[in-house]
Amino acid sequence: MRILIAPDKFKGSLKAAEAATAIRDGFSRVFPHANFELIPIADGGEGTATLFLDSMQGEEVRSPAHDALGRAISATYGWFSKTKTAVIEMSEASGLWRLHPSEHDPLQTTTFGTGELIRDARERGARKILVALGGSATNDAGVGMAEALGWKFLDASENEMAPRVGNFSKIQRLIPPPPSGQCEITALCDVVNPLLGPLGATHVYSVQKGATPAMIQNLEMGLTHLADLCHQQLHGDHRNVPGAGAAGGLGFGLLTFCDAQIEPGFQAVSKMLGLSQKIISADLIITGEGRIDTQSEHGKGPVEVARLARTHGKPVIAFAGCIAGSTSAFDACIPIADGPISREDSEQRAAELLCDAAERSARLLSISL
């Protein structure tokens, strides 16, 4: 039996490669002679830069930056000197993982640090920059990033405004920086949400970043004002582009302030890994991630693996730490917990639980063979 194991990360617990190893170890207890191929995946969110570095010849570059609350940090990105390409994860500088839960405040957090990494890559001579969207602590539509790249945001009295979402309603004029040379920027996006509305950045994602019901209205009003202002003064309207709402609207910011393109992150990763051909060669596909829910249908890695597998008539099993919503994309979707368990315990024991869940599933599968 040829088994392709292609999971995403189990956020907060396991990297994608660690998850793949745990699944393989569990299945091999039942199918010791199976031919396993481990292909960790990413969907354009967290883990994408690491995946590129692991799969291609590149180096990890370290640069000073600031986190989402403006504190000085040291952040990294992938650099490929032969092609003058940088792969930047927005979560590296502007990610939720850098903040304590008590610090979550999308009215104040900013993507300024992500802009600093883009600026550093440009100064290094990058001809192409891939920005992986996902895991953000922000809801600023990329305005902080734009500030780091030289954009200015003025109020009615021509005073510069600190570009925080709480100030967006006061911004009246946008001043672009001088041209910075030729550098193609592509946003690798793991979702298809627009900037605004019930499926937009604020309504779908801001709660997990600390937004209260009262904040949500202010956030949506701020982003609406910004989108209207950009449409009037920059003569472009990207609010409804699929993916514009990714990473707190950073997709919109990259389109608007960097003349970027958006590319589905999974497609870029899948092409790099040759995933389609590997699926064709396998008898069984196994995927998974920390949580599978209604958001998973909007471009998340495991569902995209399943869709690709179905086009080739291959069965797919998915494992998840938490399942909430439809699992119809998979032939089977297995929670890894073996009984009542706290989230903390689940995260600490993730590798063990995933390995054991894989073994249980393999024993069920063996009955039909």
What does this structure look like?
The protein has 369 residues and is of the alpha/beta class. The chain is built from 13 helices and 13 strands. The protein has helices at 16-28, 48-55, 90-94, 112-123, 143-148, 201-205, 213-234, 246-257, 265-273, 275-280, 301-311, 343-348, 350-367; strands spanning 2-5, 35-38, 59-66, 72-80, 85-89, 128-132, 152-154, 173-175, 184-189, 261-264, 284-293, 316-324, 332-335. The strands form 3 sheets. A 6-stranded mixed β-sheet has the order 3-4-5-6-9-10, sandwiched between helices. The chain has a 5-stranded parallel β-sheet with strand order 2-1-11-12-13. The chain has a two-stranded antiparallel ribbon with strand order 7-8.
